[in-house]
Amino acid sequence: MTEKIKQTLRDNKAARWTALAIVAFTMLCGYFFTEIISPLKPLMESELGWSSSDFGLFTGAYAWFNVFLFMLIIVGIILDKVGMRISAIASAVIMVIGALVKYWAINSLSGDVTAIDINLFGNNYVMSQQLLWACLGYAIFGVGVEFAGITVSRIIVKWFKGKEMALAMGLEMACARLGTFAAMAFSPVIVSKFDIPQVILIGGVLLAAGLIFFIIYFFMDIKLDKSMDDSELDFSDEKFELKDIGKIVVNPGFWLLALLCVLFYSAVFPFYKFGTDLVFNKFGVPMENGMFLGFIPKGASIIPSLLPFGTLFLTPIFGNIYDKKGKGASIMILGAVLLIIAHVVLWIPSMNSVIVAILMVILIGIAFSLVPSAMWPSVPKIIAPQLLGTAYALIFFIQNIGLMIVPTLLGTTLDKTNPNVVERMAYFKATGLEQGIVRPEAQAIFERLSADGTITSNVTNLTSGEMSAVITELRAESIIPAYDYTQTWMIFVVLSVAALGVAILLKAVDKKKGYGLEKSNIEK
Hints:
This protein is mostly helical and 524 residues long.
């Protein structure tokens, strides 16, 4: 009887899984918004006039504030100081604000008015008002979603340590990947019914719903704390001190996990941004925005969307294996090997089989299930509980350096290695359609689209959507050549090989230091 009285809310299976479901929903919404623009790169080029460099700069802007303003370090310290409840709500509010700024920029600002001319990583970027403010909005959102990710990781440890922790983290990641899948698969369908700004607005509404769910968790966490003894409140009464950072950074296991994280995620997350464009340009899959059988999205974006879809099921499975059997370091090595195979096959210039592309995307999904399912539950084995918030923040900070640099590098490399594409796009649009001029090579396409009702405006008053339709047809008929991704994709191959090397080294250090990465998580 006494033993039952001492049980806490986290010992109630229904309660802890309910808490997980609440916070996982918000992460689903966050990841949906993160990738909502990713499958629209060709449309952003044809409708908004963005180049690959613009798109790469925009997607890399996600990490601007996290890196340059050290926001992830700051929010990690805030998390350790004020606790999970306030941090969760604050992170969701920041996400909503960022989404609103991004929507306002794309919907209201001009892409023709130059706002700033800057040099980044040795390359000159001329940014329009629209691009600049869209980047700033995405950067604000990036702070919020990473803050939420750190907080949710800490929440899961609080509720599941000594229990099904890797399974819980795997399920949370699976929910996040469901958000990614939904964005990749359905964003082109939504944009065909509305427009680009409306797609962003729908994502913002979902983020507002996620904020409500975090408010619900606020009260559930209070109830948990009341059920715990003072000795159990490792997560709420330990105060952060600056010297704690020193305790973390002298740990070799921390650095290897952080390095593996930045290399691996930089070889996967930017794939979401450029995967649809690769499928469109290299494999010739059209950018269709309709539905097959009334409910299955079709077109180039559906192939990259298979990546997160596979992780929905596999991440929890691999997490459960880690919980019960261990072998965390070995799981990470296997994931890195599979990632190398997939990126090398996609890189091969002569390989243009759509079936092979689908199989390689699925293989990346398997790799993306293996590594995170073992990597994140390994952090508490290396770092003390009271330092976890700061440790996760430091790892996410290092990860964000890669997520900022790699997409920008990909976009710049793509433009520089395909100058003919950039020139032809400008020839037909910037100095053509936007000036009321239909180039001779585009005349037949223009007349056909006018005849079928796609274009209803006068040539001197075309809408962005009508110009986009012309550009899309020009690309489909190879009048505007396809991008050659050979040199660009080599970046992914190099990152994958480096990730494997770090994973092997981590296993060796674990054997020497005794972190227990190869041991099971469930306490017996």
